[in-house]
Write a structure and sequence with these properties.
Keywords: DNA-binding, Transcription, Transcription regulation
Number of helices: 10
GO molecular function: DNA binding; DNA-binding transcription factor activity
Organism: Symbiobacterium thermophilum (strain DSM 24528 / JCM 14929 / IAM 14863 / T)
Protein name: DeoR-family transcriptional regulator
Distance between the termini: 66 Å
Order of helices and strands: HHHEEHHEHEHEEEHEEEHEEEHE
Radius of gyration: 20 Å
Number of strands: 14
Oligomer: single chain
InterPro entries: Carb_Metab_HTH_regulators (IPR050313), DeoR-like_C (IPR014036), DeoR_HTH (IPR001034), NagB/RpiA_transferase-like (IPR037171), Tscrpt_reg_HTH_DeoR_CS (IPR018356), WH-like_DNA-bd_sf (IPR036388), WH_DNA-bd_sf (IPR036390)
CATH topology of the largest domain: Rossmann fold
């Protein structure tokens, strides 16, 4: 019997956390081989560690649950920079006319946009966020299409193959896209590959890509790459946006609007 065979579950989980935080590639298959246990045992360990906020599971593995790479809960984000998000939403909503088709990404800023669209007529909204779908469900002039998919608890976003398949069949006028970070070199980023993949599908499905992000997202880089800044047509942010970032974006042909 090897040392790994005799290892207690808590010791095994501690070593898993160490490997994840070291930046090494961590997959279920590799961990099962390293610790001499079944893949189902490793999956159980990862589920428990994720519930404790110590890592975040991905398809086939795990990534660090580091504050610089992941994000707060949906409830926590709702109260963060609320005034700025509402100002951004007012500018964004002013771009949406009757008869348009739009995609609303999951997020608290996009939820504020949805709240301002309830009086539109003949508006089609595609979203991967059930809070947005619920907000618009009783709007008589708005048709809401929900992508389906797997719910991420932290963001209440629907992700995965089902969400992506729906978006592949969509041709929208606009997408209002959220992001956890905007950096000139690293582009748009988000904490998990699953959400990054859905966001890329949204970008591909819309004729105009409008990123809605408060100024705290400037120069931040999260774990999963979404797309380069060249993929966006416009950024709507608040007055606190770093002028250097605005200048760099404008130089690359990205329109920048600051909400008052």
């Amino acid at each position: 019997m090897t040392g790994c065979d005799r290892m207690f579950p808590e010791e095994r989980k501690r070593r898993i956390i160490e490997r994840v935080r070291s930046g090494a590639a961590v997959t279920v298959q590799d961990l099962a081989q390293v610790f001499g246990v079944s893949e189902s045992t490793i999956r159980r360990d990862l589920r428990e560690l994720e519930r404790e906020g110590l890592l975040e599971r991905t398809h086939g593995g795990a990534v660090p649950a580091d504050p610089t790479l992941t994000e707060p809960s949906y409830a926590e984000k709702t109260d963060q920079n609320r005034a700025e998000k509402m100002a951004i939403a007012r500018v964004a909503a002013g771009m949406v006319h009757d008869g348009a088709s739009i995609i609303l990404d999951a997020g608290t800023t996009t939820l504020e946009i949805a709240r301002l669209l309830k009086d539109r007529r003949n508006l089609t909204v595609v979203t991967n966020a059930y809070p947005i779908a619920a907000e618009l469900a009783d709007a008589p002039g708005v048709e809401v299409i929900v992508t389906g998919g797997t719910v991420r608890g932290k963001t209440l976003a629907l992700v995965g193959p089902l969400a992506e398949q729906v978006l592949e069949q969509v041709n929208a006028d606009l997408v209002f896209l959220g992001t956890n970070g905007i950096d000139i070199e690293r582009g748009l980023t988000t904490p998990t590959p699953a959400e990054a993949s859905v966001k890329r599908r949204m970008i591909a499905a819309a004729r105009k890509v409008v990123v809605v992000a408060d100024s705290s997202k400037a120069w931040r880089v999260a774990f999963a790459a979404v797309a380069p800044v060249s993929s966006m047509h416009m950024l709507i942010s608040d007055r606190g946006l770093d002028p250097r970032l605005a200048h760099e974006l404008l130089a690359r042909g990205v329109q920048v609007l600051t909400a008052e």
